């Protein structure tokens, strides 16, 4: 069968959405401090090891437990040392909660140097380059004069530069510039003195002077430039799960993230580390303005993460979070002669930030508790600030609530994405808009490989075809320092020296750079690949958990009596027995007279089929027959479900027209292991010459790395389309541009 794309370039299906490709930042895997935020000192404010308010610390397990019972790792407790700092040569240092720098600072560091030194080891080292300068400052006090030598040194003690600071009296800011004489990715910062009196240090910082746009409290230049190279339409900030937190105290609050960085309250992130909020709301808006992109602010609506033993805030605290959200909007938009506009002006930006465009109410929140909070926030904020676009995290329109855009998230395997290119084809054109705010191929793609990029690209062709309703997308997460990995894959990996994009990064760059003006009518005729699911059956019988079958089985059957508990029956099949983000299983769920089969794949789920089913008694006899891509289910002898899984198209494509260039653009994905000849039929004559940008590799598992950062990158060639036929490489994402001849 010849794969064919029939195209009508003059028949406009829908205009492109200018906001379709954005980026999403969340401080995860050290994406903030020591990452995009160019701070080079770890635990610069000495409060990393403070147990978060309301939590209890378990020294045996090195964990903390929230008031509602969520348990998280906590391997930097101050009871076991001062995180990131060491003392040597007779120097002594202790933490104190007395006379800290200000009310935001929980700790200060008392030091008796005694001719020795204290060292900050940075984020797995401090990266310096010969001839480059670094700005150090600290707030310190001392009852007696103390000359403190500030040095950048190698791990073996070689001094790259040093400056002397004379400390005396109450807290004051002491600063200097240091210029490295050598390249070193594992340097340290040393403070030494002959003083035998106590010097108290309240806050420290070390920044490269060469930041993005040269901003003093700025962003790491190479990482920021990797973001702008994607040509994003918007930036979603600050998360993600950190918006909600895992307790009231760890929920994100805008007012903690503005002003002098040494006066900002710290924030323990649910990803297992502390932030001093140096990369805050002001810096977010400033980057959006510098990069010429729109800003999307996500705020807490009065609840913690519902996946982590949730806590629902009382009315008083909900009102506090509401005011926090309003103040954030005013900080961005109010004139400088108002309360919040004046605070913005005092922080160096007199005029309003014009980039704020989107407001998202909560993150991954759902259900009745979310609905009432969503309505409380939406009704009031929309009335006061009608100029912004508002985003819900659940389909609140189904509960009769006013809803503009819904944020949907997908973390699955590549096949899930490739099989769902038509997911949005049947959207109600008069219904809500969709923002795919987080997505990534995760299962089998942890390091970021070509296979993941292929699945995602296929999915995006379906989204591009429907961008009259699916108007925004953003891959997640954005950054990862492999020394602190909390989630994989991530679009960009970095260390102290360099960074690289995974294949999905380059796929997205290809798609964002080739938008066109409108989507034209087109039909893709292609062969399909059958799905081949395998796994066991799992259910409860006589109060016991039962597993039947084997993971590698193809055709398998189950005939068993299954418990009905609280009017609900659940049986899993094609269950790989993996958990969490790696899960892949199908659940038969029957309750309240209804039945459905739901596919759980990674953190995503899809309803395969629905029907009716009346349950009686305490158990039911279940018969399930499976064979690769199809299943039959009977309950008490009655056929309830019979279905064949959606197959995977060999090629997926979307066609747009660039009116200014007079060109047809075809984004085409070949997810198979073979080259495919594609017949391109157009009712408008096309040039027989085309520019083809191809992302491919020798293996589905191929990816990039620090050693080989460009092993999988796009290559552009000029080709001839012979008699309307074009050969498409195996395992490839393609962008084809050819002139329309009129």
Structure description:
It is a single chain. This protein is mainly beta. Helices cover 14% and strands 41% of the residues. β11 and β12 form a beta hairpin. The longest helix has 19 residues. The two termini are 31 Å apart. The model has no long low-confidence stretch (mean pLDDT 97).
Provide the structure class: mainly beta
Report the radius of gyration as a whole number of Å: 28 Å
Uncertain residue segments: none
**Mean pLDDT, as a whole number?**
97
Fraction in helix = 10-25%
Proportion of beta-strand residues: 35-45%
- Spatial order of the strands forming the largest sheet: 44-43-46-41-40-27-1-42-45
Blueprint (SSEs and pairs):
Layout: E1 3-15, E2 21-24, E3 56-58, E4 63-65, E5 71-73, E6 85-88, E7 92-96, E8 108-112, E9 117-120, E10 126-128, E11 133-153, E12 159-179, E13 184-192, E14 198-208, H1 221-228, E15 234-237, H2 241-244, E16 267-269, E17 273-275, H3 281-291, E18 294-299, H4 315-333, H5 339-346, E19 356-361, H6 367-384, E20 389-392, E21 405-412, H7 414-419, E22 433-441, H8 450-465, E23 470-475, E24 479-480, E25 492-494, E26 499-501, H9 503-513, E27 518-525, E28 528-529, E29 536-541, E30 544-548, E31 555-563, E32 569-575, E33 584-591, E34 594-601, E35 604-612, E36 619-627, E37 630-635, E38 638-644, E39 648-649, E40 651-658, E41 663-670, E42 676-682, E43 686-696, E44 715-720, E45 725-728, E46 732-740
Parallel strand pairs: 1-42, 2-15, 2-23, 15-18, 18-19, 19-20, 20-21, 21-22, 22-23, 24-25
Antiparallel strand pairs: 1-27, 3-4, 4-5, 6-9, 7-8, 8-14, 9-13, 10-13, 11-12, 11-13, 11-14, 16-17, 25-26, 27-40, 28-39, 29-30, 29-32, 31-36, 32-33, 33-34, 34-35, 36-37, 37-38, 40-41, 41-46, 42-45, 43-44, 43-46
Helix pairs in contact: 4-5, 8-9
